[in-house]
Amino acid sequence: MSVVDAAASVFCREGYAGANIDLIAAEAGVSRQTVYNHHGDKEKLFVAVVRDLTERCNAGIFATIATFPDQPADLEADLVAFAVRMNRNCICNRDGRFLRKLIQAEGERYPELFAEWREQGPGRTWSALAARFARLAFAGHLSIGDPDVAARQFFALVNAELQITFMLGGVPAEEEVLRSASNGVRTFLSAFAKKKSPAGKQAMLVHA
Amino acid sequence: MSVVDAAASVFCREGYAGANIDLIAAEAGVSRQTVYNHHGDKEKLFVAVVRDLTERCNAGIFATIATFPDQPADLEADLVAFAVRMNRNCICNRDGRFLRKLIQAEGERYPELFAEWREQGPGRTWSALAARFARLAFAGHLSIGDPDVAARQFFALVNAELQITFMLGGVPAEEEVLRSASNGVRTFLSAFAKKKSPAGKQAMLVHA
DNA sequence: ACAAATTTAGACAGTCTTGTCCAATTCGTC
DNA sequence: GACGAATTGGACAAGACTGTCTAAATTTGT
């Protein structure tokens, strides 16, 4: 395991103040001196950890958004599958859990660092996701007022039942993720499903 | 400020490991020795802080749930007002923010303590809230499948736009809270509003 | 006003951590 | 195999923190 990875693990488990460099070095399988050679001091190492996690998480999120169902065969099933993918690959995986915890625990102590995360991360991923929902709406699959609001509500709904597990740093079981996503998507579609008014146009666009 | 209140503040700001007793004593306006006389050691003090916050937060949440609109004059407006009350009095206030942060940061280190919180807190408040939604549905105001799911989704929706602010430990502005609640309730009612099939019964029950 | 209880300031030992220095060893590359 | 670069282990000083102790000061109840 690389030094940065080991540091991420220890910073998350022990907090910034509680993390000690000896433990990080041991977990990385290198000597303490090597840690200092590579990263200067504890604070620089921490910054490197957050930047690394941010980058990897963003890459994962964008890759997953690329799998958003633009031409859904079965809209409900496709959205559930998308939500589960997002959870598994971005939210519940190692990087996602670590980054979330570091933001929550140390965000206030490093305003500029986490402002950077906010721009690079949520600032970009939310609009990308909103754009996909806007496209679904434009194609006649959904009836959406504000795509940004819809994207945030989609996310909130499919994670609604996992909040407490996330709070305690746990990893929800596969079936919990699926259940939360299924319930969330059902409610989401109840609220945003295309009204059946111009049924012909809807059916046409579905198969366009 | 009491010792426990000062300790809550410092534990939240600095993390458990980073919190030092001198600072807590200074913030509480007492000597360090008094802190030790009252609470034994750092770990006992931390446990006292979490129990205190849990108790106060639960009291606030139950008090707010008691204001749930059972006989709504204007269902949408009443639910928005309820959500705003819940946010202001339980989620965004000092105790709520502190307890959330301590759970996120130290939950894994004290499994039994936070298991206790989970039983006393979410375990009871969620069913209380679900019961109120079940009552609304029974009275014909909503069309709900599973009240527990609906309660969690309601909560998720009205907080959907505040997640990032919460993550960074900030306090959303009053207008943000209102906007998130309004958007959330609108979507919630789009999904769960009573279908207009037995309109007579619905109207009758509304004024019963 | 007096006695008991509590609080206070300060000193203290013991432990831990950070970050540096250095000599010896290992590694990568030619 | 040889040479330069990187890594290692260990020692080290400086500082911080916890938890204890004690004697003096202050508050409290009566």
- Beginning-to-end CA distance, first to last residue of chain A: 49 Å
* DSSP summary, beta strand count of chain A: 0
Radius of gyration of chain A: 20 Å
Binned, the helix content of chain A reads over 70%
Structural class of chain A: mainly alpha
Percent of sequence in beta strands of chain A? under 5%
- Can you tell me the overall shape of chain A? elongated
Oligomer: homodimer
**Total number of helical segments of chain A?**
12
Could you tell me the mean pLDDT of chain A?
A: 92
Give the SSE order of chain A as H and E letters: HHHHHHHHHHHH
Largest sheet of chain A: none
Biggest interchain interface, per-side counts = A-B, 39 and 39 residues
Poorly predicted residue ranges of chain A: 197-208
Describe it for me?
Two copies of one chain form a homodimer. With 208 residues, chain A is an all-alpha fold. Chain A is 75% helix and 0% strand. Chain A has helices at 3-18, 21-28, 32-39, 42-65, 75-91, 94-106, 111-120, 122-138, 147-158, 163-167, 174-192, 199-206. In chain A, helix 1 crosses helix 4 (42-65), helix 4 runs antiparallel to helix 5 (75-91) and helix 9 (147-158) runs antiparallel to helix 11. The relative contact order of chain A is 0.10. The interface between A and B is large, with 39 and 39 residues. The first copy, chain A, binds a DNA duplex (30 and 30 nucleotides) through residues 20-22, 30-34, 36-37, 41-42.
